[in-house]
Prior knowledge:
Elements: H1 9-31, H2 45-64, H3 69-86, H4 96-125
Helix pairs in contact: 1-2, 2-3, 2-4, 3-4
Amino acid sequence: MFKPPVISERLRRIALVMSVILLVVVTVLLLMPVPDGDGRLPRHVDKLVHFSVFFAVAFPAYVARMRFWPVILVGLVLYGGAVELIQPHFGRSAEFADFIANSLGVMAALPCAVWFRHRRQLKARKPAQGYRPE
């Protein structure tokens, strides 16, 4: 059975608050109407933005509640799909490619969060500089 590395309660709270704040900001940004582009941005750069913002929401959520990673993963993937479905009601277009980018961002955050928690745990176990057990 997968047992996630332990982190401090303080870090857990900070990560959870960050994730909730980012989720609210992302929701507002994804539902704001965007003016017609003038073609200055490279094609499909919005896919990178979708990937990045969903990575940014998922990473602290996984760090905060690693034990519930399946719920976080499924919840954020469904959330990304729901946002894409309601965007046309806010003057934006719904794109399947955006949904894929959202989902990939959520999935990519999981191994990064596992690595982050593992590194934090190793740091916590590392003996103090200059300390030698007898």
